[in-house]
Amino acid sequence: MTTGGGATHILIFPFPAQGHMIPLLDLTHQIATNYAGRISITVVVTPKNLPHLHQLLSVHPSIQTLVLPFPSSSKLPTGAENVNDLTPPFFLTFIRALGGLYDPLIRWFRSHRSPPVAILSDMFFGWTHRFAAELGIRRIVFSPSGALALSVLYAMYRDAPPKSDVVSFPGIPNCPKYPWLQMSPMYRSYVDGDPDAEFHRNGFVDNMGSWGLVVNTFAELEEVYLDHLKKELGHDRVWAVGPLKPIVDDDDQTGPTNRGGSFSVPVDSIVSWLDRCDDRKVVYVSFGSVAVLCNDQMEALALGLEKSGVHFVWAVKEPTKELLDGGCGRVPPGFEDRVVGRGLVIRGWAPQVLILGHRAIGAFLTHCGWNSILESTVAGVSMLAWPMQADQFINATLVVDHLKVATRVCEGVQVVPNSDDLARAFIESVSDDRAERQRAARLHEAAVRATKDGFSSAKDVESLIDHLVAPETTSK
Ligand code: UDP
């Protein structure tokens, strides 16, 4: 089925968390840019998430939106429509509440004159598999996690290993055993019998039966795990399309800046601050869009930065009042005065891609969120790894142990690192002869190549589109 003009109509359904929305909207941008005549797009969001589409829609006014009210839930904080509005205990309830969009979406489809022939939806919307089956359309899973992490998630949710000291995944090549506490807290809640976690687990099992899978990764980075997923799901059902490129619009004079938030420090000031620094001597510190450190961790980190003497940019997520009152997210008083001139603290949202791409950045202390890892890889910046939760321990396996472009400096969401160890790691991270740096530079070349015409990820996007526009009876 097509919309007017012969284009194949697809529905894109991003999960409302920055780490999930950003890459799927980047892919939407890429499809709209390169396949405007062949594909027409509708994006589903709830009202408060509409501003996150602003940049995409300003570049591609032809993209339609379907704005559906957030399903009411007495268990969620009033007005919460994005993971950004929540603290961890609510995540599973939030994911389940969004399942309430099933009926409104079905009604929209049935009333549409030319409804989508396929739905490309986030891996946290496993229920869209059943939804697609009911409508007789194709469902493609979008994974904002990498292929190794997704392989582990799929094996974990399918095999449902019971609680034990360590969990192993013998079917996944080169996959280490992980301590129980490093398994996703959502999975641990499932094992503890949480009904919302069971809904989430069922969604992951549904994901595995979906028509296709799109992963934000590239062959040169994760070939062995992509092969593993293809073996499990079908060789012609998996597309690796990364590293997805940020949406750049006419306002982005200095490169991609507006990736989902406004900045506490003007972009120009950040750039001119970095311009005054030496090449590859600045450490960038960020723990993504969700994590807020407890005050003990904030102090250890601040002390480590202070003792190291290195230049740094530290992006500090603005804590909610509740978190602040609970002893989290406070930059130690007086810290910024003590490091004035060599340290820049950005509160709230930082233009991460822009910062990582600046010649002054020499290393990135990251929580190992997959987007951060890819962005660092594209920038050719080696990492200091502090995985905390979710898929981050698995991502750290890849970048620290397999690819050796990162060094592990701490592990765990509650662990307080030693400030002397941190200081040493910061100093080493910006030393010119660090082996991780040379490897990161090589990986950067592979990352840039992957998305060029004729190379692996560009070819996979092309193949995905070819399959989407093919008649529905054609199996991939
Ligand atoms: N991000 C950003 N500025 C910030 C914090 C995060 O631009 O101040 C972006 C970052 O560039 C990445 C995403 O938000 O694209 C975070 O995703 P990631 O997978 O690294 O971590 P998560 O937030 O999901 O834990």
UniProtKB/TrEMBL annotation:
This is Uncharacterized protein. The keyword Glycosyltransferase applies. It comes from Ficus carica. Keywords: Glycosyltransferase, Transferase. SUPFAM superfamilies: UDP-Glycosyltransferase/glycogen phosphorylase. The keyword Phosphoprotein does not apply. One of its GO terms (molecular function) is UDP-glucosyltransferase activity. PANTHER family: FLAVONOL 3-O-GLUCOSYLTRANSFERASE UGT89B1, GLYCOSYLTRANSFERASE. Belongs to the UDP-glycosyltransferase family. Pfam families: UDPGT. InterPro entries: UDP_glucos_trans.
